[in-house]
């Protein structure tokens, strides 16, 4: 056995014994914890997005089918189209934002415009004009 292969096998044995010596109930320790204010601000920022998405996916199908009387097949098609559109547009928007150069940064302009558009479209998602009958609600 050469000295190089002998040291490599010793290294592997040492690594295996170190892994085996860690108790199974040990929790990873972080070097430093973020301040509570930072954690609260971060969670509030994501809270708006979570509230909107959970409302749409948890309540929209019931609202469209039971409250508005839209056929469940059409409501399902509308939600499937939205998911497919999102899957198609995410890589494109990622490419666009990766290549954006502005004084506000790469993503900030899109976050600002997207947040405003999200609030407007969220309102109109639940507000159907009276002119639309049941057959045309899908296109609202």
What is the first-to-last residue Cα distance?
A: 76 Å
Largest sheet: none
Mean pLDDT: 77
Helix content: 55-70%
Question: What do these coordinates show?
Answer:
By secondary structure, the chain is mainly α. It has one domain. The protein has 4 helices and no strands. It has helices at 3-20, 36-67, 72-98, 108-126.
List the helices and strands and how they pair.
Blueprint: H1 3-20, H2 36-67, H3 72-98, H4 108-126
How do you describe this structure in short?
With about 140 residues, the protein is mostly helical. The protein has helices spanning about 5-20, 35-65, 70-100, 110-125.
What attributes does this structure have?
single chain; 140 residues; mainly alpha; 0% strand; extended
